[in-house]
Amino acid sequence: MKKIFFSTILIAVLMLCAGCAGLKGKEWKLTEVRAGDKETVFDRKALSEEEASDIFTMLIEDELISGVGAVNRFSAPCVIGKKEIKIQPMRTTMMAPLRQPEKLKEHEFFIYLQNTTEWKVVDKKLEFHSKTDDGTPVVLVFAL
To answer: Least C-beta-crowded within 10 Å: which of 44, 47, 133, 141?
Structure first.
């Protein structure tokens, strides 16, 4: 009976780790932000026209999330479960951006990351489900 119990626990833990493993060690780029009723407030295609394709990136490693906003670097401890994610308070550099996308300010990106509670992969894209400070649902879509 103990062997069956421990085997079941081990299989559950391995399945949980396998689900998260696809997220880790890769640089994800923010491709889209949808707020409220599917309104797109950010689209990476416009960044390539502005020659700013190296912003709004994220890397997940073990229990740490890090990356670049519009100009500032960030990092934060995180706990990733099968579908849930908890991002602890973030550390960021404090440089003033010379320019940033009109529809997504860097501090909004950081707030959305901080408020993320759920993740899932849809069509090979990583979705973070979050909310604004006033409670409006937000979906951040990342791609490799």
So the answer is: 133
